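Journal club prep — side note

Before the paper discussion, L.F. wants everyone to see what a predicted structure for a comparable chain looks like in token form. Sequence:
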Amino acid sequence: MSNPDNLILIVEDEPKIARLVADYLEGSGFSSHHLDRGDTVLPWLEAADPAPALVLLDLMLPGSDGLTLCREIRRHWPEIAIVMLTAKVEEVDRLVGLELGADDYICKPFSPREVVARVKAVLRRSRATQEPDSHATTPLLSLDHEGWRALAEGHDLALTAVEFQLLKVLMQAPGRIFSREQLMDHMYRDHRIVSERTVDSHIKKLRKKIHEALPERDIIRSVYGVGYKYQPEG
């Protein structure tokens, strides 16, 4: 029996592929909903209750392409995992998709069993970083969302609102690389125009405060030419 709490949104314009994937997902305890046009995705997500745990997102879609949708989903619903489906195998497409916030990438043709396995793996990673209450914790850092405070082993880091927001976004997806553009979208919800150097400046200050509390740990990593990621281990 499918579980309504494990809703998967399948965005795929080939009905046979969508039906096959849906059957395998539902056979593994998931529920699913299918959309075959890109321009229907964002309106559906805005109205969805509950929101899907994960979106299986085809790259080539009528109405709006998958990369554009990936960017918008990650901007407005950072908690939703994204697995991209594509027939394009060039490395540049993989890098661009992952830079925009995709959690994983599956190339066609694929086995539906592989899709189910990837979905389960991505959701395990995603849910391992989420807490059921207002305090999202890691062994090193904790965020008090209601009080807008970040604690490093119990010590308040005294972050500014922007620094707190940056850390919150990065901690929601350990290991995921966020581009400067993505981080700017979360820093400034009014979409004001700011330089990418502004992001670098805030990250520098945030890293300094964390380093003062945890001098032996490099938790926020720079990824040359792409952006930043939160790496609590390793």
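L.F.'s comment for the group: The two ends are 39 Å apart (CA to CA). Keep this in mind when we get to the figures.
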